[in-house]
Design goal:
Layout: H1 2-37, H2 42-58, H3 62-80, H4 102-117, H5 122-138, H6 142-163, H7 166-182, H8 186-212, H9 215-224, E1 233-236, E2 239-242, H10 245-253, H11 261-277, H12 280-294, H13 302-323, H14 326-342, H15 347-365, H16 375-402, H17 413-452, E3 459-463, H18 466-469, E4 480-484, H19 491-509, E5 574-575, H20 577-581, H21 586-592, H22 594-599, E6 604-608, H23 610-624, H24 627-644, H25 646-650, E7 659-660, H26 661-679, H27 687-696, H28 702-726, E8 732-734, E9 756-757, H29 762-784
Parallel strand pairs: 4-5, 8-9
Antiparallel strand pairs: 1-2, 3-4, 3-6, 7-8
Helix pairs in contact: 1-2, 1-3, 2-3, 3-5, 4-6, 5-6, 6-7, 7-8, 8-10, 11-12, 12-13, 13-14, 13-15, 14-15, 14-19, 16-17, 17-19, 17-28, 24-26, 24-29, 26-27, 26-28, 26-29, 27-28, 28-29
Length: 794
């Protein structure tokens, strides 16, 4: 722990030293300028040289050091009366000592740009552009300064595309924003905005490619040098070549080839004929083909996509009426809602289709002769959800006002005390959110039961995942299972609860926050196919918020369970307590994977009979406390979790690149506490309760329990803030401060924003201050099991 603290202090000292160097450099620049323009004030020039020399003594960065040396030589030449040696020649004019020849400057940059597009050494180019930037600053030449900063950004963009390092793209974005803040001309600002959009597109392409394919395919593609499909490249006979930002912007001046509207319209017409004839497979194939022609995740043609999705919804309604499968109607509802999110046209028509979808579901699947829910019912549910989010935001704002530990210095004892108070307040907030969501879900289920009729037996909806751990957000997916009464497990009972789940799903889909890939519509996203081209539809328009856990084979934490795969049998999460507990048995865990058994170990009642949940917990205890399993299976589970998350537990150093708040911040504390619970035989659902029990059992000291609470609260708070800022489950979080620019034509600040920027970077420091030591000691905890109490986890 002491070594870690020393490293953190060293990092802090390094940061302070960098700030000190920047301050000295800036003071030197001020004195240099005053010395130049006040009749060559020798005192000011001497002072500038002293400041630059002092900064050099403290500087450890080679690039910054070279810049300081250049400044020092420039000041020295002015001091002894020699003409300043510049990198660009000047034309004779009344302003000859300041303004470079624009033609010469353009020639210089064109020459350097040609070297950029080749395989020229980029470190050398960085030095060249930095010199130009320094000269622009020294000569008060705004045009030269902006062009040099812009070119530095171009170098980092090319380096990022070659190395697939998003850190380089982050640096490029920062440089373009800096140039934008200094740029005067409207054309220059437009060019820089294009570069920012171009860089964002590169980052999104990398992210999409990384998440779309399995890890082994990504490694293979990196070895083969394949670029993402929508990567900006120039194709030549000899292969692929990097497209510079200038070339990309130039390519945007001429309109890209328009989609083949004739083929799009032909597909729609053919699909309409097939639909009218009842040939549903052909109709779906044609509508999907039309969608694929115009589908662009980065620049979707919303009106055309909406038309294709609406007609595809018509196919699924007819298919549902034919097969009587509830899932066909929910897929139709998702398609209609996706169409609604893309267009303002025909909303009345789409709403009518949604009501008819519910009507046909009740008639053909549930065998209930009942009118569909009125439109204002959906509006009321949407308002209820927004009110829940508004209350959470208000409470978070109140916590900021009442408990702000970051106003104190790190060594101030007040900071530790206020930080612990804030963690307790965050804990109370998340307990409130979990309870609000439970009431909301209960209201939806009660409405469904009122329409379908009373259940045939006693039941309990049990919440899983973050709902059970009390770390859920108002935007999180709904993960749950259904317990049914012993002796009532028959076809009629299962059919009723499947229909109830489908009806609940319809109501959740109509909230408008279910993305289409989560519905696993085969013509758009076929997750069971080995052909990646069959998983092609990316829903960048529909908000991703409160929705069912997806139908993907690796998700499926709903009563529907999972369809049969090549290696696994189908499973259902509608079970009696005894049968649900069997997922904890060693043989079942090995065949299904430990993730399913882990998530079913921590449950909370949503709606129904508390007695069934108690009975389920008793059955869990019977399975888990078996002599063999208590010492063997839980240890295997802990080791398996550690092995599956090896990268998370071996990555310590934070970086400046974009973070995925869920994967990089939120998941680690939850997994660490889950491992501690396994090792200590704790089967409580709530993460907060597990920490309290660890303290009661003296498996962790009181101080360490506080550390765990603070660590968990920071991770949960950052996820909640990110989702609130992005209005949905968008996980991008920037550890850098938000950069703003203001043009002369604007009266307010405008921020180019593509991700959530953390409000105070100190909160990340406090997170890593606790996370890094805990990561290092977790393997030892798993190895020694009951010796957790002797290990320090602060």
């Amino acid at each position: 722990m002491l070594r870690v603290c020393e490293k953190l202090r060293e990092a802090d000292a390094k940061r302070k030293r960098l700030v000190e160097v920047e301050v000295l450099k800036s003071l030197g620049d001020v004195n240099l300028e005053k010395g130049k323009f006040k009749g060559k004030d020798v005192t000011k020039l001497d002072r500038a040289m002293v400041l630059y020399r002092t900064a050099l003594l403290r500087c450890k960065d080679a690039d910054v050091g070279e810049s300081l040396e250049y400044r020092y030589r420039h000041a020295e030449k002015l001091r002894i009366g020699k003409a300043t040696v510049t990198l660009i020649s000047h034309e004779p004019s009344t302003n000859a000592n300041k303004m470079p020849s624009i033609a010469k400057m353009a020639e210089t940059f064109q020459h350097l740009d040609r070297r950029l597009t080749s395989d020229y050494n980029k470190d050398s180019l960085l030095i060249e552009y930095t010199k130009l930037m320094v000269e622009g600053i020294a000569n008060e030449d705004g045009m030269l300064e902006v062009e040099a900063i812009k070119s530095l950004g171009d170098v980092y963009v090319k380096r990022g595309t070659e190395t697939r390092d998003t850190t380089c793209l982050t640096k490029a974005t920062a440089l373009y924003n800096t140039a934008l803040a200094r740029c005067e001309g409207i054309q220059g600002r437009v060019t820089l905005i294009h570069r920012l959009l171009y860089t964002a597109r590169l980052r999104q392409a990398m992210k999409t490619r990384r998440h779309k394919y399995p890890k082994h395919r990504r490694q293979q593609q990196r070895q083969q040098g394949d670029l993402p499909r929508d990567f900006p490249v120039i194709r030549h006979a000899k292969g692929q070549q990097f497209m510079t930002p200038s070339e990309y912007i130039g390519s945007q001046t001429s309109k890209p080839p328009a989609p083949d509207n004739r083929s799009y319209e032909d597909d729609l017409t053919t699909g309409d004929r097939a639909l009218a004839d009842g040939n549903l497979d052909t109709a779906e194939q044609r509508f999907a083909s039309a969608l694929r022609l115009i589908h662009d995740p980065n620049k979707p043609d919303r009106d055309k996509e909406a038309e294709g999705l609406r007609r595809l919804g018509d196919v699924y309604v007819k298919r549902g009426k034919r097969t009587k499968e509830g899932r066909k109607f929910t897929q139709a509802a998702a398609l209609y809602n996706a169409a609604m999110a893309r267009t303002y046209k025909d909303k009345g028509k789409i709403n009518k289709s949604l009501q008819e979808t519910e009507k046909w579901f009740l008639q053909h699947t549930a065998n209930v002769d009942s009118a569909p829910s009125p439109l204002d019912s959906t509006t009321r549910h949407q308002k209820r959800l927004e009110d829940m989010r508004g209350r959470a935001k208000s409470q978070l704002d109140a916590i900021d006002q009442q408990h702000d530990p970051y106003q104190y210095d790190e060594d101030d004892p007040k900071m530790i005390a206020v930080e612990a108070e804030r963690a307790e307040a965050i804990k109370a907030l998340f307990k409130t959110i979990a309870k609000d969501r439970q009431f909301f879900i209960q209201e939806l289920i009660d409405e469904c039961i009122a329409t379908l009729g009373p259940p045939p037996c006693k039941y309990a909806f049990i919440g899983l995942g973050s709902q059970a751990t009390e770390l859920v957000t108002p935007y999180s997916d709904l993960e749950f299972a259904i317990l049914i009464e012993d002796g009532k497990d028959n076809d009629d009972t299962r059919r009723y609860f499947l229909n109830l789940t489908h009806y609940l799903h319809l109501k959740v889909i109509n909230l408008g926050e279910t993305i289409l890939p989560a519905m696993a519509i085969p013509s758009l996203n076929d997750f069971y196919s080995e052909d990646p081209e069959k998983d092609w539809f990316f829903d960048s328009v529909t908000p991703r918020g409160f929705s069912f856990d997806g139908f993907m084979p690796w998700a499926c934490k709903t009563p529907f369970g999972r369809d049969k795969t090549k290696t696994k049998q189908p499973l259902s999460l509608i079970q009696t307590p005894a049968n649900m507990a069997k997922f904890q048995e060693l043989e079942v865990s090995l065949s299904e994977g430990y993730h399913l058994s882990d998530i079913l170990r921590r449950v909370v009642l949503l709606v129904g009979e508390e007695a069934l949940v108690s009975q389920y917990r008793e059955k869990l205890d019977e399975v888990i406390t078996d002599d063999l399993l208590s010492h063997f299976q839980t240890r295997i589970s802990a080791r398996q979790i550690l092995r599956e998350n090896k990268e998370m537990f071996t990555t310590f150093e934070p970086t400046g690149q974009l973070l995925n708040v869920k994967k990089d911040i939120y998941r680690f504390p939850g997994i660490a506490i889950e491992i501690l619970a396994l090792c200590c035989q704790i089967r409580l659902a709530s993460t907060w309760s597990v920490i309290d029990r660890l303290k009661e059992m003296r498996q962790v000291q009181e101080e360490n329990a506080t550390h765990l609470t603070v660590l968990t609260s920071i991770s949960a708070e950052l996820r909640l803030r990110t989702y609130m800022a992005n209005r949905g489950q968008q996980d991008s979080l920037s550890p850098l401060g938000e950069m703003k620019h203001q043009t002369r034509k604007l009266h307010d600040d405008t921020t180019l924003k593509s991700e959530f920027h953390i409000p105070d970077t100190q909160i990340l420091y406090r997170y890593y201050y606790r996370a890094i030591p805990l990561k290092k000691c977790m393997p030892d905890i798993v190895q020694h099991g009951s010796q957790v109490q002797s290990r320090r986890a602060e």
